[in-house]
Amino acid sequence: MSEEVRLNKYLADSGVCSRREADKLIAADRVRINGEACSLGDKVRPGDTVTVDGAAVKPAPRKVVLAYYKPAGLVVSEKDPHAQQTIFDAIDYPERLTYAGRLDKDSEGLLLLTNDGGLIHAMMQGRSGHEKEYIVHLDREPQQETIEKLRKGVYLAELKQKTKPCRIEKISRNMVRMILTEGLNRQIRRMWEQEGIRVRALKRTRVVTVSLGDLKPGEYCELTKQQMQELYRAVGTTD
């Protein structure tokens, strides 16, 4: 590090978590700079020592992005005392990573993992409209009028929010492809349940420019330099 940076950015760039989560760590008094308590907005200067829960945090030596096929049943969380297994229990990787977006426990498919907090921050900006693509198996055939209604966006009372317009393409009788530009909590399941249709299985096949490809459940691969450049370009940041 050659110049001072905001503490939340330092933690994010070190792969600890996103900037938003870093702010929570700071507010919870879990972060220290040179052994001293710190506040939101504090900056880290060259030579400073930063710790989280007493463990030293150092900038990541290189930026890494993994494409991981999350199997159904795994929880996307750093720690969850109620989960039998989280994704970090399942992945054997030598560097500390965090996730860019979530998939609920019952869903499977593509999850991006990285040590670059700047990339996570760019991808989590809902106003940016970054695409995520899903294959959705339903418990019965949806009527065209239902599809049209969901395409335009529906109000989800549980979340007190209306969904953004999305793309829905019918693949077969009980299967559709959906492309969303937001990621509300269990959004796809809630949208269909509101119309009396249950999601039997959900698989995410693409995040922005990265596709699931030939990965099998539980497998992962590092993005190539070209794939990383395409992703960074698409989300409006630099690698």
What order do the helices and strands come in, and which of them pair?
Layout: E1 5-6, H1 7-13, H2 19-27, E2 31-33, E3 36-37, E4 43-44, E5 50-52, E6 55-57, E7 65-70, H3 87-90, E8 98-99, E9 108-114, H4 117-123, E10 132-138, H5 144-152, E11 155-156, E12 161-162, E13 167-172, E14 175-180, H6 187-194, E15 199-207, E16 210-211, E17 220-222, H7 225-235
Parallel strand pairs: 9-15
Antiparallel strand pairs: 1-4, 2-3, 2-5, 5-6, 7-9, 7-17, 8-9, 10-14, 10-15, 11-12, 13-14, 15-16
Helix pairs in contact: 1-2, 1-4
Structural class: alpha+beta
The overall number of domains is: 3
| Head-to-tail CA distance between termini | 16 Å
- The radius of gyration computed from the alpha-carbon positions, rounded to a whole number of angstroms, is 19 Å
Percent of residues in helices = 10-25%
Total strand segments: 17
Main sheet: strands, sense, barrel: 9 strands, mixed
**Which CATH class of the largest domain is shown?**
Alpha Beta
N to C succession of SSEs: EHHEEEEEEHEEHEHEEEEHEEEH
| The CATH superfamily title of the largest domain | Pseudouridine synthase I, catalytic domain, N-terminal subdomain
Beta-strand fraction estimate: 25-35%
Principal-axes geometry comes out as elongated
CATH architecture of the largest domain: 2-Layer Sandwich
CATH topology annotation of the largest domain: Alpha-Beta Plaits
Given the structure, what is the number of helices?
A: 7
Mean pLDDT, all residues: 91
Low-confidence stretches: none
